[in-house]
């Protein structure tokens, strides 16, 4: 009985970590809106680069927070304000690009590719994570809850678990977008969908301002 206790305790901890990661990753947010739109425009497989970059971007932030990056926010509190306004500007920029996109599926014109939503840059997800105050707060809260003792092994374990859960959660949004594309085949419907998503991104930016 005594030999099983540490194993059960570790399993409970890992399940708790996974539940935290799932709750933070699967819920609607700016990154998931962009991934959903990418799934509609490009399909599931071609959106996986965006899914991977968003996952890697957040998990890198999570890892660095666990290793002490959060001290920067304590030492330089104005960084929070800078991150917040950078996030607002970036969300509004993407909302504008999405609102004005043509709605043509599979349009990969290099001239318009970077943030066109006919082919969002694979780096878009990572950039959004790093300028999203919510991502910073989730990272700080998660590491505070599960690696507050400074254990390096726990920091890496939590990051690894989060990576798996986060990737799967964001990939679900890409799959949902690919599924929706079957019903949005006409450019006019895609444009309407894009404009609704643009409105949600703009609302996310407004929420950051008013919070």
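Sequence proposed for the structure above (211 residues):
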């Amino acid at each position: 009985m005594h030999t099983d206790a540490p194993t059960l305790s570790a399993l409970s901890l890992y399940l708790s970590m996974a539940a935290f990661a799932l709750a933070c990753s699967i819920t609607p947010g700016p990154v998931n809106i962009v991934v959903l739109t990418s799934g509609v425009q490009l399909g599931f497989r071609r959106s996986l680069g965006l899914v991977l970059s968003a996952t890697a971007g957040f998990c890198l932030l999570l890892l660095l927070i666990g290793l002490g990056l959060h001290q920067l926010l304590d030492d330089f509190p104005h960084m929070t304000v800078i991150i917040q306004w950078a996030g607002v500007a970036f969300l509004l920029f993407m909302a504008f690009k999405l609102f004005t996109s043509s709605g043509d599926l599979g349009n990969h014109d290099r001239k318009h590719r970077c943030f066109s939503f006919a082919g969002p840059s694979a780096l878009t997800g990572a950039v959004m994570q790093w300028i999203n105050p919510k991502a910073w707060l989730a990272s700080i809260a998660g590491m505070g809850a599960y690696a507050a003792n400074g254990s390096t092994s726990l920091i890496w374990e939590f990051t690894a678990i989060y990576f798996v859960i986060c990737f799967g959660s964001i990939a679900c949004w890409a799959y949902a977008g690919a599924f929706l594309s079957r019903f949005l085949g006409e450019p006019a419907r895609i444009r309407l969908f894009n404009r609704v998503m643009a409105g949600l991104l703009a609302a996310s930016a407004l929420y950051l301002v008013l919070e």
